[in-house]
Specification:
The chain is built from eight helices and six strands; from the N terminus they run H-H-E-H-H-E-H-H-E-H-E-E-H-E. By secondary structure, it is of the alpha/beta class. The protein has a single domain, classed as Rossmann fold (3-Layer(aba) Sandwich). The longest helix is centred in the N-terminal third of the chain and has 12 residues. Bound molecules: zinc ion (2 copies). One zinc ion binds next to loops.
Length: 239
């Protein structure tokens, strides 16, 4: 009889003690039940900008894309609202590490991952990771069927909250906040992974660093896209 790997065995024990509960409706069995996922799919606006994936009913690309030109594109599985928003908050502040797995699976089912060579998570500052115990973007990246990049991004200084800052202020706030450490990314098409993309300023800054490290292109892939008109209360705290 083949023994189960220890990690998988522990996982079964933990799952038995704490069966997952849907973050949307509270039903037991899944962290994200099929019904709530279908609801989240329905909440994604049909008309979106082809470059940054934000809600946009106009012609061509939306006017907010200009500062995101270093990104090949932004792609998100869901709108940052309803169950998707609750999942992000639960992952971030509810310390539900196991939630990253079904969230990554939902991203895989909705985003075309075939055009990327490697995944790089947007890093959080080490002090925040110590506090939380894990990095939510890294957990999402781990759950995607993409190989990790040969090196990693590191956040070398804390940035203040981006809420209420103009585009120029956001860029200044983020300048020099990230470094790439590792072998050159020579010609790799990088999927830059984050839980939420709001202004895209953080992703654009990371993309600039990865392109300097040799990446052929960088696309931001997120679990959820916060379109621009979020109220202060809706704004994710991470960016
Ligand atoms: Zn549900
Ligand atoms: Zn756009």
């Amino acid at each position: 009889m083949a023994a189960l790997p220890v990690r998988r065995m522990l996982r079964l024990v933990v799952d038995a003690l704490y069966p997952p509960q849907c973050v949307g409706c509270g039903r037991w069995g899944d962290f994200l039940c099929p019904r709530c996922l279908a609801r989240a799919d329905a909440e994604r606006p049909q008309a979106r900008c082809g470059h940054c994936d934000a809600a946009w009913a106009g012609e061509g690309f939306c006017p907010r894309c200009l500062p995101l030109s270093r990104l090949a594109a932004v792609r998100a599985a869901f709108e940052f609202t309803g169950v998707a928003r609750r999942a992000v908050h639960q992952l971030k502040y509810g310390f539900t590490r196991a939630l990253a797995e079904p969230m990554a699976a939902a991203m895989t089912a909705r985003l075309d991952l075939s055009t990327y060579d490697a995944a790089v998570p947007v890093p959080i500052h080490p002090s925040r990771q110590r506090w939380r115990g894990f990095d939510q973007a890294a957990e999402l990246a781990r759950g995607l069927p993409l190989p990790p990049a040969p090196g990693r991004l590191r956040r070398i200084r804390k940035t203040r909250s981006q809420v209420g800052l103009s585009a120029a202020e956001r860029r200044r706030n983020l300048a020099g906040a990230f470094v790439y450490e590792g072998p050159p990314l020579s010609g790799l098409r990088i999927a830059l992974i984050d839980d939420v993309v709001t202004s895209g300023a953080t992703a654009a800054e990371c993309a600039a660093v990865l392109l300097d490290a040799g990446a052929a292109q960088v696309t931001a892939l997120a679990f959820a896209r916060a379109s621009y008109e979020t109220s202060l209360a809706d704004a994710p705290i991470r960016e």
